[in-house]
Amino acid sequence: MIDIFGNALVDYLAGEYTEDIATYSSLDEEDTIPLPYLFRTFKDMPSLEKTALKLAKGKVLDIGCGAGNHALYLQQKGMDVTGIDTSKGAVKVCQQRGLNAVIHSDILNHSKTKYDTILLLMNGIGLAGTMQKLDGFLSHLKSLLNPNGQILLDSSDIIYMFDQDEDGGYWIPDNGSYYGEVVFTMEYKNQRSEPFPWLYLDYGTLQNAAWAHNFECELVGKGNHYDYLAKLLLH
């Protein structure tokens, strides 16, 4: 499988930045992921990410760590933090940037260690893929937490992407699936990834899923564009 994301990160770190990652979605949206943004420092992070990093405590696992921005910031603060990513390129970049602990693995295949804080930033809950897989995903994350452990995640309610009628309701296609289920394809330097599912959760849906696993669910903050930061607390 082509490591689009990792190849782009490796190129950028090597000073070979010539283009951004193009994304195409099942919502007929075309967009780009600017590579410099994937190497942002703490001061350039959105406020929700800054808040999440300030709330991190104990032994931390950064899922989908990418270029390692969040993990490296916490490591510089003296915290015990591990990054994990399915991208070989991302893992290589984290190592080259000085992250002490980084694992190349799917999170569902990682079960050896327990953590006090799990980070799922940059819409990280999207890794669950679909609503059907969300329960299993949360169940696995729960198994990785110490008593009183927490999951800090941000996501977005993408209801705004659908047309509204005069009464304020939304026209959502009745295809039997949750409207936050999106399929993406990425393209970089004339190479295209296989399509992959991604899940955007509105807060109410997240809250119900969290309660089903006996998490406390707290809305920590809201961003400027239908995005939010939530904390799931395990007792």
Automatic annotation (TrEMBL):
InterPro entries (UniProt xref): SAM-dependent_MTases_sf (IPR029063)
Domain of life (superkingdom): Bacteria
GO molecular function annotation: methyltransferase activity
GO BP annotations, alphabetical order: methylation
Signal peptide: none
Pfam families, alphabetized: Methyltransf_23
Stored CDD domains: AdoMet_MTases
Keywords assigned: Methyltransferase, S-adenosyl-L-methionine, Transferase
UniProt entry tagged with the keyword Repressor: no
SUPFAM superfamilies: S-adenosyl-L-methionine-dependent methyltransferases (SSF53335)
The UniProt record lists the keyword Transferase: yes
Annotated PANTHER family: METHYLTRANSFERASE, UBIQUINONE BIOSYNTHESIS O-METHYLTRANSFERASE, MITOCHONDRIAL
Protein name: Class I SAM-dependent methyltransferase
